[in-house]
Amino acid sequence: MKIMKVLAFGAVTLTAAWTFAQTEGIKETEKFVKAGEDTSQAVADAHVQTKTALDAYNALVQGDSKDMKEDYKKLLKAQKDMNNRVADARKTVAEMDKQAAIYFTSRSDAIGQIQDTGMRDQAKTRLEESKKEYDKVRASLKKGGDELAPFSKDLSDQIKYLGAELTPSAASSLKPQGEKLNKQGTTVFTQVDTAVTTANKYFGTLKSGS
């Protein structure tokens, strides 16, 4: 009788441990998804703010401004917001990586407890595929953030140029550089859009639903 009680207690303990592990696994998944979505949103926000600064710059260079002094103040604010957003986008990748390591380790541990060999191997294959997809997502988001940094620097240089001589002729003299900058921006913004779309799709597949 004592042996049966011990075995029963052991079974209950193992079940409780497994249930706890499953619950923790769900929590780790949610944290990973949130970190990924936060990173994706940060990169998207950096894109939007950089585009806003570029538009404000273009208004001055292309001669559309009716009040250069006032519009330049708006441009400086847009520039500051742009730099902050770009810096934030690059920082969030580190937090996403941290949560990714915890998530994949937790998932691997859970797979190791599957008794059926076939299902365990199948789960391992899915895990490896998910890791590879994440590596692509991470590289894409990181590249998007990294590409925005030098672009924002180039834009900032031209904003400083304008500040040194805020006149219509000075603004007009920047048109060749402005055209080059806008072409560069088109390429960078396309890369960022692709990165964000890919990331959102990947993290969406990890959600269990509401």
Amount of beta strand? under 5%
Termini separation comes to 45 Å
Overall shape: it is elongated
Number of helices: 5
**How many individual β-strands?**
0
Helix content: over 70%
Biggest beta sheet summary: none
Note down, in words, how this protein is organized.
With 210 residues, the chain is mostly helical. The chain has one domain (2-205). 90% of the residues lie in helices and 0% in strands. It has five helices and no strands. α1 runs parallel beside α3 (117-164). The model is unreliable at 6-18 (pLDDT under 50).
Care to give the gist of this entry?
The chain has one domain. Helix content is 90%, strand content 0%.
Please supply descriptive tags for the structure shown above.
210 residues, mainly alpha, 5 helices, elongated
Secondary-structure blueprint:
Blueprint: H1 2-61, H2 68-112, H3 117-164, H4 168-172, H5 175-205
Helix pairs in contact: 1-2, 1-3, 1-5, 2-3, 3-5
